[in-house]
Amino acid sequence: MPLRVALLTLESTASAEAAARVLRETRHEVVFLGVSSPLSRARARRIIGRCGPRIIPWLLAEFVAPRLMRPRGTGPLAAAARARGVTPTPIVDINGAFAQAAIEATRPDVIAICHFDQILVPEVLALAPRGGVNLHPSLLPLHRGPMPCFWAAAEGGGDFGVSVHRLAPRIDAGPVIAQRRVPVPAEATVSTAARLLHQAGAELLLQALDDIATGRDRGRDSPPLPYQSFPDGAAIAAARRKGVRLAGFADWRAGRALGGVAV
């Protein structure tokens, strides 16, 4: 029997096409589409305050490029939503009363996350009887946190990949349902790597939903490694000396090519 799915995402250059693919191709009924906005001034100030000005090109490529001088209700996610007959809902606070009521009203069986910048409290996760799953662009338990592609590139070794894991109280620490190594060109920027990994991960998330529906989602636990937050200025500078670039003109063009955002 098809699942009732609540899909949560954040539109960015890295993940918009992947989220649209999940929405477009899933065999299950998407009853709720929640979209977080990354562009609040407070959030941008926090990130720049931690990372320093070197993070700005990445912010521009990921979040400004898809939106600049583009109308809302456009882009791949909006098109997929129209085709599925689901209306994107802006999510300011996933744990607030409005979001909880909106999700509860749709009676989802499972919550699926494809790049979402808010942490679900247990009360929200409990709204879905079959729990939640998250697409994370790293080989968990490596590189837990919001910028795994940066840390994978900075550490070297080519440890790039994507995981689908169960949501748990600890961030990016639930049992891994599916995982795949993904080759990333040595010259790829952090933004490009994230885009490649999300695109590869969409297929894993689609399969994970099918496995949950049939009871074949056998996750494996592993001791979580340390959480890695946004890099500070020193870490970005050290990575740059190794040849790691956060974003380039190709990433800006990729964001512009999306043609807009849903909300």
TrEMBL record:
Residue ranges of every copy of the Formyl transferase N-terminal domain listed in the record: 100-209
Keywords: Transferase
InterPro entries: Formyl_transf_N, Formyl_transf_N_sf
One GO location term (cellular component): cytosol
MF annotations from Gene Ontology: methionyl-tRNA formyltransferase activity
Keyword Kinase: no
Keyword Phosphoprotein: no
Pfam families, sorted: Formyl_trans_N
Matching PANTHER family: METHIONYL-TRNA FORMYLTRANSFERASE (PTHR11138), METHIONYL-TRNA FORMYLTRANSFERASE, MITOCHONDRIAL (PTHR11138:SF5)
The protein, known as: Formyl transferase
Species this chain originates from: Neoroseomonas marina
